[in-house]
Amino acid sequence: YLESFHDEEQEIIRDLPTTRPAFIPKPLPALVGLSLVNRDLIEFAQLQRPSDIATIDMDATLIPTNIETAKYCYKAKDGQIRRAFQPLNCWWSEHGLMLYTEFRDGNVNAGFEQLRVFKEALEHLPAGVKSVRLRSDSAGYQHNLLKYCEKSLNHRFGRIEFAVSCSRSVSFRQAVAEVPNSEWHRLYYLENGELKPSVKEWAEVCFVPDESCKSKNSPLYRYLATREPSRNPIISGLEQTELPLEGDSDYWNCGQYRLFGIVTNITDWEGGDVINWLHERCGYSEQAHSVIKNDLAGGQMPSRLFGANAAWWWLSVIAHNLQAIMKQHVLPEELRSKRLKAIRFSLINIPARIVSHARYLIMQLSSKQHMADLIMEMRRRIASLVPCPSG
């Protein structure tokens, strides 16, 4: 059909990409305003407890919904594909706060435009942060993102250290198979201040991906592999391809071991330390997702409109950061590790009578003196917090 078009139209068609990229709507001004509110809240937390390093954990979470305008996601329940939203979140580990988020449809790949989201998250870091580190699962295995971190392309923070789970391609598995057994080391983890051995082993892997071979100026990374004994038994006389796979198709089963891959640009750490540092990402950011979706109703979408649901998610993120700051700097020690439900029963739902008399606002509590002392101590801590500069 190209012969029937004019020359200009032919040039346009030839320049079209072979695959249609996913569509990301332009952020609404209201959503940008909510992100700025959250940035001010992050700056307030930085003033209370300054940190010169920011470890950012990038991870996406699914929000199942029955809204007809929502898109289908990759997960199914009871054999039925579910509709969902899938926001991509950037978690600041040192402060335990959600630095930035982008609300997305459920059919948008978690690895889509992670570099752009990461750049926007870096802009929300307050003053005083001198260095940045990145942790992510295999969705963050994007070579443009890794190159951006390694080549010091960010003018404010320079080189960004990272540890990302890499894909277990055929070439990577072949490189792992060439590692002799003598070079596999036991992986230890820290529990209650004591190092304990795990069933996993780790090794350095000599591997260069195809993306790094396209140019002599391409950066070279450090690849690590971990393996753990497989739950599937080895059946003699049966071909390996006929062995059943693990329940989770994300794992590669080689009959004897389950294999995981990690890519990093951290060269002055031992491989086991890099792996344990990456594993610290698991648990905290996922727990924050659970708090936002369940405790703060961020997982209950209020509208069929995408923009309204995105605003609702941003409000839930801001509410999470606010209650996290309160737990870190205001609440007593015994309540800092509690979920919002426990705080509601032990503090928020305490009965009291509010009396306005003689230009004073008086709160009358029951005869329990310890509760009055607790509230007075919390008010004292709030008054002692460092305020943000005006403007």
Note down, in words, how this protein is organized.
- The protein has 391 residues and is an alpha+beta fold.
- It is 32% helix and 24% strand.
- It has ten helices and 15 strands.
- Strands 1, 5, 6, 7, 8, 9, 10, 11, 12 and 13 form a ten-stranded mixed β-sheet that branches. Strands 2-4-3 form a three-stranded antiparallel β-sheet, with no helix packed on it.
Task: Give start-end ranges of low-pLDDT stretches.
Answer: 1-25, 237-254
Largest sheet geometry: 10 strands, mixed
Helix content: 25-40%
Number of strands: 15
Q: Ends: how far apart? A: 60 Å
Shape: globular
Number of helices: 10
Q: How much of the sequence is in beta strands?
A: 15-25%
> Rg from C-alpha positions?
25 Å
How are helices and strands ordered from N to C?
HHEEEEEEHEHEHEEEEEHHHHEEH
List the helices and strands and how they pair.
Layout: H1 7-15, H2 29-48, E1 53-60, E2 63-65, E3 71-77, E4 80-85, E5 88-92, E6 97-102, H3 114-123, E7 131-136, H4 143-150, E8 161-166, H5 170-177, E9 185-191, E10 194-205, E11 222-229, E12 252-253, E13 257-264, H6 271-279, H7 281-295, H8 306-329, H9 340-348, E14 353-357, E15 360-364, H10 369-383
Parallel strand pairs: 1-7, 7-8
Antiparallel strand pairs: 1-5, 2-4, 3-4, 5-6, 8-13, 9-10, 10-11, 11-13, 12-13, 14-15
Helix pairs in contact: 2-8, 7-8
